[in-house]
Amino acid sequence: MSNEWPLWEVFIRSQHGLAHKHVGSLHAADAEMAVKNARDVYTRRNEGVSIWVVRSADITASSPGDRDALFDAAKSKVYRHPTFFPMPDEVKHL
Amino acid sequence: MYAQMVETGQKSVRALADMSSEERAFQQRIDADVKVEAADWMPDAYRRTLVRQIQQHAHSEIVGMLPEGNWITRAPTLARKAILMAKVQDEGGHGLYLYAAAETLGVSRDQLIADLHAGKVRYSSIFNYPTLTWADIGAIGWLVDGAAIMNQIPLCRCSYGPYARAMVRICKEESFHQRQGYDIMMKLCQGTAEQKAMAQDALNRWWWPSLMMFGPPDADSVHSAQSAAWKIKLLSNDELRQRFVDQTVPQADYLGITMPDPDLKWNAGRGHYDFGAIDWQEFHDVLRGNGPCNRERLATRVQAWEEGAWVREAALAHAEKRADRGDELG
């Protein structure tokens, strides 16, 4: 009878003004139950003001094998960081 | 500990020279404290060992609900009852975080539970002891959860990301458990002579099993070295046990009760407490299924699972029906 409830990923907004953040996963028969279970499993101590749930199967993720191709390129572009440009001490507000 | 004697499938620690290039790269990332994530390549033995360890840990949380659940209806006050319910609910939550972490390694929840019910995977020896009096609830929170914290704090730094993150959540909640236990013990020890005797009796019965939670002595712990190399075990059994004794003895002194160990004494030279020999025969008997409550605990879990089957099936059928109809939230 192995007919498991689908797996859902849970995202919680901890305070107004912050983004939802992934906190974990759980099983539920449908979205409504997933929200209710998320409330019981992940917000027992006022951790959140809003819950998102999404079926794990619906998430598309980058592959670890593509890590270099995707992210290495940014490493050589250090000029994207403000600290790349030394500024004279006497010049203010930059 | 919550995961005791986890087999690694290795007879000795794998040497870099014996590894494939993939495995060597993996070990070097672990050595450099880079976290392993679910989709990353990992050696089969690492994956299997982690599944066993996280699964034992998860089952311990869930089975651990039973000895304490036993006292929910008989808690001495409404406040104590509400607190105990919150604590037992937390244990259920901890089990769920951990099952989810194990599932990231490619096993199904149903399989994990089937393994427990078939007796293929253990849970901590500690939950095979009975909770005879209300003081046992105090002793469990103070000693058992105290021992668990000792083991779980280092695991927050373990090499497998999903397990480490689950441990961070658990540790945040665990401190409440230990304090509520000590609070019960304080209340009893400040009470009548009879109440204080009850606290002493609970300490007498839970002390040695709590020390056994950390697992066999390092010399007999054949799988620890590989688990340490993989950074899924960060401190040795004996090291954790000593820390636990050192921190707990002064707490008992404050309560005015004593450990049931005539050999327990401060060793100024070592800067630690010396303590008496642990009855490892008892530990192995309990692990083999012959503790006071092994059969009852497992039977209760199996019964809950079987009697809940119709609820799981009905919820799924309902969700499928609503999805077919195109209902919102279907």
Give an account of the 3D structure.
The complex is a heterodimer of chains A (94) and B (330). By secondary structure, chain A is an alpha+beta fold. A three-stranded antiparallel sheet of chain A has the order 2-1-3, covered by helices on one side. The termini of chain A are far apart. Chain B is mainly alpha-helical. Chain B has 13 helices and two strands. In chain B, strands 1-2 form a two-stranded antiparallel sheet. The radius of gyration of chain B is 21 Å and the shape is globular. The two termini of chain B are 42 Å apart. The mean pLDDT of chain B is 94. Chains A and B meet through strand 2 and helix 1 of A and helix 4, helix 7 and helix 13 of B.
Which properties best describe this structure?
heterodimer; A: 94 residues; alpha+beta; three-stranded antiparallel beta sheet; 2 helices; elongated; B: 330 residues; mainly alpha; globular
Roughly how many Å is the radius of gyration of chain B? 21 Å
> What portion of residues of chain A is helical?
10-25%
Number of helices of chain A: 2
Report mean pLDDT of chain A, rounded to a whole number.
Answer: 92
The number of strands of chain A is 3
Please identify the oligomeric state: heterodimer
Q: Which runs of chain B of at least 5 residues are low in confidence (pLDDT < 50)? A: none
Helix content of chain B: 55-70%
What is the distance, rounded to the nearest whole angstrom, between the alpha carbons of the first and last residues of chain B?
42 Å
Spatial strand order of the main sheet of chain B: 1-2
Number of helices of chain B: 13
> What does the radius of gyration of chain A come to?
21 Å
What structural class should be given to the helix and strand makeup of chain A? alpha+beta
- The overall strand count of chain B is 2
Low-confidence stretches of chain A: none
* Anisotropy-based shape of chain B: globular
Q: Outline the biggest β-sheet of chain B.
A: 2 strands, antiparallel
User: Structural class from helices and strands of chain B?
Assistant: mainly alpha
